[in-house]
Amino acid sequence: MRKRILVVEDQSDKRQILRDLLTSAGFEVIEAVDGEAGLTAAAAHRPDLILMDIQLPGIDGYEVTRRLKADTLLHAIPIIAVTSYALAGEAETARAAGCDAYIPKPYSPRQLLAKVREYFVPARADEVIE
Questions:
Q1: For 3-27, what is the mean pLDDT?
Q2: Is 102 exposed, middle or buried (0-12, 13-18, 19+ CB in 10 A)?
Q3: How much is the pTM?
Q4: Are the beta carbons of 32 and 4 closer than 8 angstroms?
Q5: Collapsing DSSP states into helix, strand and coil, what is residue 77?
Q6: So what's the pLDDT on residue 85?
């Protein structure tokens, strides 16, 4: 079964780049154009991972992340902030809001895919899980 990724991004060209990159790597992609649509899509589709833009119309990506992490049904979904809002300390702000990782734009497609795949690596049989 293919892993499902929700892309929350308001700019259509950036959504298309992510869609093309992720689908060519074998992922199923769901798209949302703003924060409200992201919340709705996350609840409806329960994705395996969310790529979250921060500068969104209406509810920004930080607030969307806080709401998702406060939801008992959705809080375990990893969220990667993917944003051009790359001021000093922004990665810490993203983590404080609940993002599991932070990737500044422009990003290397190879690096973005590597970060996404980190969340889908199966645990090794010899690892002890506590």
A1: 96
A2: buried
A3: 0.91
A4: no
A5: coil
A6: 66
* Res 128: pLDDT: 47
Q: List CB contacts of 48: < 8 A, sequence separation 6 or more.
A: 3, 4, 5, 77, 119, 120
The 10s digit of each residue's pLDDT in 23-71 is 999 999 999 999 999 999 999 999 999 999 999 999 999 999 999 999 9
List the structure tokens of 24: 């060519």
Q: What is the dihedral of CA 23, 95, 9, 48, to 10 degrees?
A: 40
Q: Which class for 125: exposed (0-12), middle (13-18), buried (19 or more C-beta within 10 A)?
A: exposed
Residues in the chain: 130
* Residue closest to 8 by CA, chosen among 45, 92, 24: 45
Q: List the beta bridge partners of residue 51.
A: 7, 80
Q: Which residue has the higher pLDDT, 107 or 35?
A: 35
Strands 79-83 vs 28-32: parallel, antiparallel or unpaired: unpaired
